[in-house]
Amino acid sequence: MPRIRRSKARFLSTQQVAELAGLARSTLERWVYEGKVTPRTLQVGRKRYRLWTEQGVAEVLLVKKNTYCKGRGRKRRRS
Question: How far apart are CA 68 and CA 75, in angstroms?
């Protein structure tokens, strides 16, 4: 019986990434639809799964930093 090799890369779900970043899952999903962040996707049949790597989490944190200031949910003022 052949052994299945596991990749060293660790993948996270959208919910886990949202919790790590301190965001609501719906906010993160909206950013995906708007094209602000792009996770890797895996398609199994007709179902698609989003797979987040460390690079994807860093991208989410950067978008959050550029969008919000002084904590959670407070948007930057436009000059």
Answer: 5
Instruction: Render pLDDT for 26-42 as a digit per residue (tens, 0 to 9).
Output: 999 999 999 999 999 88
pLDDT on residue 59: 94
CA atoms within 13 A on the CB side of 37: 28
Distance of alpha carbon 31 from alpha carbon 24, whole angstroms: 11
The residue type found at 15 is Q
- The better pLDDT of the pair 70, 43 is held by 43
Angstrom distance (rounded) from CA 28 to CA 6: 27
Query: In this structure, what token pair is assigned to residue 22?
Result: 């301190």
Nearest residue to 40 via CA among 75, 7, 79: 7
Residue 55 in contact with residue 44, Cβ under 8 Å? no
- The burial class, CB within 10 Å (0-12 / 13-18 / 19+), for 67 is middle
**Structure token pair of residue 9:** 């890369």
